[in-house]
Amino acid sequence: MKAQDNHPKDGAHILIVEDSPTQAEQLKHILERRGYHLSMTRNGREALAAIRERRPALVISDIVMPEMDGYQLCGRLKKDEDLRNIPVILLTSLTDPVDVVRGLECGADNFIFKPYDEQDLLARVAYMLANRRLRDSENSQMGVEIFFAGQKFFITSDRLQILNLLLSTYEAAVQRNRELSAARDELRQLNEDLEARVRERTAALEAEVLERKGAEEEVRGLNAQLEQRVLERTARLEAANKELDAFSASVSHDLRAPLRHVQGYVELLAQEAQSQLSDKSQRYLKTIVDASLEMGELIDDLLSFSRMGRAEMHESEVLLDGLVQESVRKLEMATHDRNIVWKIAPLPKVVGDPSMLKQVFANLLSNAVKYTRPRDPAEIEIGRAGEEDGRLILFVRDNGVGFDPQYAGKLFGVFQRLHRADEFEGTGIGLANVRRIITRHGGRTWAEGKLGVGAAFYFTLRSPTASVTIEPKENS
Amino acid sequence: MNNLGRILLVDDSDRDREMALIALEQHHLAHEVLSLRDGAEALDYLYRRGEFAGRSRGNPAVVLLDLKMPRVSGLEVLRQIKGDPALKMIAVVVMTSSSEEQDLLDSYQGGVNAYVVKPLRFSAFVEAIKQVGAFWAVFNEPPPGTLRKESPSGL
To answer: Where are the domains of chain A?
Structure first.
């Protein structure tokens, strides 16, 4: 360390007693810059030896040190006739009043509180050096014994010492107060910052909540709009469907009249000209009649299909067992010459329009009967295959001619057929009607099959127990 | 117009009328039939106005009525007949291509006596006409004020 300052030309000699190398170094740095000469020792014992060797103008000592502490060192110096006039500054934290009393007892001349202010330290050092002479003159051997904090102390300090100590204490208090104020200010500032941040955050959160509420409202609005649109679209579709059905009904009726006329006049012609007609001509006439009858069937089917779409549904609990038995009985009369094995499982109760459901089974069972015609025995199974979305899955399965699975999607279309008319009669309306009825009941239909092996037709219907929970409105 | 008009056939289709007449002829009822082409003509006949202003008094025993016709529909004719105390006793049989629920409902609410869907097959058509004609014009005893049957000698 270089003494940069050229101030005190007569650089007084100061002895530092400090066991902490960092603190010692700090003191040295501050004081050397002011031109003081320094000796460094690490405890009271070393200090005593150093003082005896070379008398310093001032001792600055830490308190807590190994071997010999600051109080002891100070006490020893003040008891020594030769050395007692060397002023001693104790470095103390002065946190405990006992420290003050102890300092007085040991006869310390002044105190510096850690952590110290550099200017304050220098000022005090300068003051102590300047007042050396004053101290030399005033000397008293009188002492007083005091009790403090359960301990006995014997204090012989002179007035100057006490004054210095009081001033130090006062300064310490002022310093502490300043520190406290600063801390309080800092706390207040922190508090304000915190409050500001809380306010900011709260505002941000409130804004966020508002935004989210707005977004939710928007979503709700959009949802409602969507639902409204779906409702409107559905209503429009239903209306269009109804219209289409009504149109097809009216067209069908209009088609029937000319068809009836074709029939009638061919018949009349046949009667009128029978004797003159060749076999060939008569066959032609017969073909005309057959064709028009066929067309009539198509028209009737179209009518029944459109009627199925428009007819009002009257839903109730339906016992499928009885319904199926009735359908089978009707078919058995027409199939007494066939070997058909009926496998009918116990069937559940469902909710539906009884006459429409009758139509479903009539169509599916007559299909099964028709397409098992080449089989001996034919096997037709009616059963239940678990549940789907709370609806019962029912099926009609046969071991008939089946179908190519790639056409499974076409099966339920109007007038869609997978077999030529000369193989199996029919117009292709049966399954379309089945799908329409099941769809109107809120269910779905599908088919599985394999060419030459058989077919299975599935459909779903609501069970009466599920209906209570799914659509409680219907009961109210 | 020599026909008595005990059977009033109202149909806008020439072919249907011809076929109906042929059917009735086969059952020797053709001479009883008066065929008209729409509801307006039917009402004129029933109220003896216009073309029929000079016809002799008396109601037909039965009106075979098509539903879908131009000018005045069958349903309107039915409602007029059944709404008029002087005509309401006339038997009205709707003969139509339609088996629509609404048409059935309207007809029965209008007081129709019978409703026949014209069969597609000619033989069935002839049979239906015969049954209807024979029942209403021969077997059924008509209310008073109905045109009289031709004397058996005319048969």
So the answer is: 13-154, 159-308, 316-462
Q: Is A261 on the interface with B (CB under 8 A)?
A: yes
B57 touches chain A (CB under 8 A): no
Distance separating alpha carbons of residues A439 and A435, to the nearest angstrom: 6
Report d(CA A288, CA A262) in Å as an integer.
8
Q: What's the full length of chain A, in residues?
A: 476
% of chain A exceeding 90 in pLDDT: 31
Q: Which fold, A316-462?
A: Heat Shock Protein 90 (3.30.565)
Question: Does the N-terminal peptide bond of residue A115 adopt cis geometry, omega within 30 degrees of 0?
Answer: yes
Any A CB within 8 A of B22 CB: yes
Chain B partners of A305 at a C-beta cutoff of 8 Å? none
**Residues in B touching A304 (Cβ below 8 Å):** none
Residue A8 CA: distances (Å) to CA of A30, A87, A433: 14, 19, 120
Confidence of residue A65 (pLDDT cuts 50, 70, 90): confident
pLDDT band at B150 (very low <50, low <70, confident <90, very high): low
CA-to-CA distance for A346 and A369, rounded, in angstroms? 20
Closest CA to B7 of B40, B38, B36, B44: B36
Q: With 0-12 CB in 10 A as exposed, 13-18 as middle and 19+ as buried, what is B47? A: middle
Fold that domain A13-154 belongs to in CATH = Rossmann fold (3.40.50)
> What pLDDT, in 10s, does the model give residues A325-374?
989 988 888 788 899 999 999 999 999 999 899 999 999 999 999 999 89
Chain B nearest C-alpha distance from A372 (Å): 31
Mutation to test the A interface, candidates B67, B120, B123, B126, most A Cβ within 10 Å = B120
Q: Is the CB of B100 less than 8 angstroms away from the CB of A263?
A: no
At A466, is the pLDDT very low, low, confident or very high (cuts 50, 70, 90)? low
Chain B CB contacts of A267 under 8 Å are 122-123
Q: How far is CA B140 from CA A300, B132, B146, B150, in A?
A: 33, 10, 12, 15
pTM strictly above 0.90: no
pLDDT digits (tens, 9 = 90+) for A73-103: 998 988 888 888 888 888 877 667 777 778 8
